[in-house]
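Researcher: Sequence recovery benchmark, item below. Answer with residues only.
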């Protein structure tokens, strides 16, 4: 049966209209009716296909008095993104949504939680575990659990924290696993955490498939790479661009050099304070900053509208990281371009990426 947003409550329909959502994406059309029935789900879809709405819309619709939802995300930036999206969905409801993550004052979190527990808690595993251990966050009223970008969380080493947190939740709950890829490890954990009749929902939509033009530019040296980078940035002046580099110091040094040459650029990396990271992301989202020089902190699940070009200044060793990086463009079926600047020492990384693409095609 075809699902439309008209089947939801008027308050949620009003929020969706204000956001500009007129019809469900394919993954939302498949997942939301099952979620509204109370089914546990493993939601599998590529980035930029509306996965947040697939779990967020039914949670905002179904959450009742005294019930709460816990959403775990791998990074601070993604937790903030989910929080903001769910606040938009809950605009005409009495559902409160707050986020908790490292890099901010734990005292602020403790103060907030001492006054009230939000209806929806979004956070990174480390900070959520810390708040539980301090006695500030009790999970006995949480009836919904979402593990977003669960493949990335496992890659980042959060498995023990996730398992510890899930053990503190009520057995009677609705659980969503959300992931772009579903390796064996995720299937095994899903069987442990979810009801036996959980549904694996996966949608391949031609309409929403990313249309990314991937280009390889072979370079002779690091200096030649910088020359090529400057050329590409000048040719695409005014476009929203993310340049991925290997290390924090690369991001800082590159941003400094490019600023000196007149480029509208900022760096984003893990050594920055949370306040500074949020400020940089806000400026990039609204277009005040045109070029973002980033480590892989920006590759993990972030939905940044209007990114037309991704540049891999350094190729990652893990092909899955490459896939997450280029997924920042070409979202929701739009066209995008990904350019990889490849030095002679990165040939093996390029080979791994090409092999992975063939295996997953």
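Model:
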């Amino acid at each position: 049966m075809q699902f439309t947003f008209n089947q939801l409550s008027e308050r949620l329909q009003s929020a969706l209209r204000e956001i500009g959502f007129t019809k469900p994406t394919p993954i939302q059309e498949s997942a939301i009716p099952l979620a509204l029935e109370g089914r546990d789900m493993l939601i599998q879809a590529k980035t930029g296909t509306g996965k947040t709405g697939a779990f967020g819309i039914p949670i905002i619709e179904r959450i009742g008095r005294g019930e709460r939802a816990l959403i775990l995300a791998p990074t601070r930036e993604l937790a903030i993104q989910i929080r903001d999206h769910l606040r938009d969905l809950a605009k005409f409801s009495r559902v409160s949504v707050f986020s908790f993550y490292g890099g901010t004052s734990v005292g602020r979190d403790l103060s907030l939680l001492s006054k009230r527990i939000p209806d929806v808690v979004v956070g990174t595993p480390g900070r959520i575990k810390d708040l539980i251990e301090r006695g500030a966050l009790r999970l006995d009223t949480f009836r919904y659990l979402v593990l977003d970008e669960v493949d990335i969380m496992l890659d980042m080493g959060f498995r023990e924290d996730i398992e510890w947190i899930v053990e503190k939740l009520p057995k009677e709950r609705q659980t969503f696993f959300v992931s772009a890829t579903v390796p064996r490890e995720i299937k095994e954990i899903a069987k442990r955490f979810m009801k036996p009749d959980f549904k694996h929902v996966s949608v391949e939509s031609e309409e929403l498939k990313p249309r990314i033009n991937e280009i390889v530019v072979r370079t002779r040296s690091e200096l030649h790479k910088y020359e090529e980078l400057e050329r590409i940035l000048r040719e695409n002046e005014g476009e929203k661009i993310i340049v991925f580099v290997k290390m924090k110091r690369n991001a800082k040094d590159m941003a400094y050099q490019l600023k000196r040459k007149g480029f509208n650029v900022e760096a984003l990396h893990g050594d920055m304070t949370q306040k500074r990271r949020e400020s940089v992301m806000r400026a990039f989202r609204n277009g005040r900053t045109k070029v973002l020089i980033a480590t892989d902190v920006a590759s993990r699940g972030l939905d940044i509208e209007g990114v037309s070009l991704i540049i891999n200044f350094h190729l990652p060793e893990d092909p899955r990281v490459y896939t997450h990086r280029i997924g920042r463009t070409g979202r929701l079926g739009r066209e995008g371009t990904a350019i990889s600047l490849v030095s002679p020492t990165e040939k093996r990384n390029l080979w791994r990426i090409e092999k992975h693409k063939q295996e997953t095609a």
